[in-house]
Specification:
It is built from five helices and no strands. It starts with 9 loop residues before the first helix and ends in a 7-residue tail after the last helix. It is elongated. The chain is mostly helical. The longest helix has 23 residues.
Length: 94
């Protein structure tokens, strides 16, 4: 991914730096929340782990419809993840 920013002066550059730093910190938090530690059923955890999804960051890069294609991943599994994400003020795209 390539991003381009246009800034007018040092104050805007400082503000942009703060914003990007916050985004990177959020990404690190996602990476540190492991599927094995989430309050999900064994079936849901096993389905995610079998697909190589082992942390919250990887869950967030998939849409609900993508997850539904995985073996043993059911609507109940999707609801479990949706409910968990709500506790973190997050949501999956569809």
């Amino acid at each position: 991914m390539k991003m381009t920013f246009e800034v007018n002066g040092i104050d805007e550059l400082k503000e942009l730096h703060i914003h990007i730093s916050k985004m990177l910190n959020i990404a690190n938090v996602f990476e540190n929340i492991k599927v094995k530690d989430m309050p999900l059923s064994i079936r849901t955890k096993n389905s995610l782990l079998a697909e190589g999804i082992d942390d919250l960051e990887k869950i967030m890069t998939h849409g609900r419809s993508d997850l539904m294609e995985y073996t043993n991943f059911t609507a109940k599994s999707a609801n479990e993840i949706t409910d968990y994400l709500k506790t973190k003020c997050l949501e999956l795209t569809f």
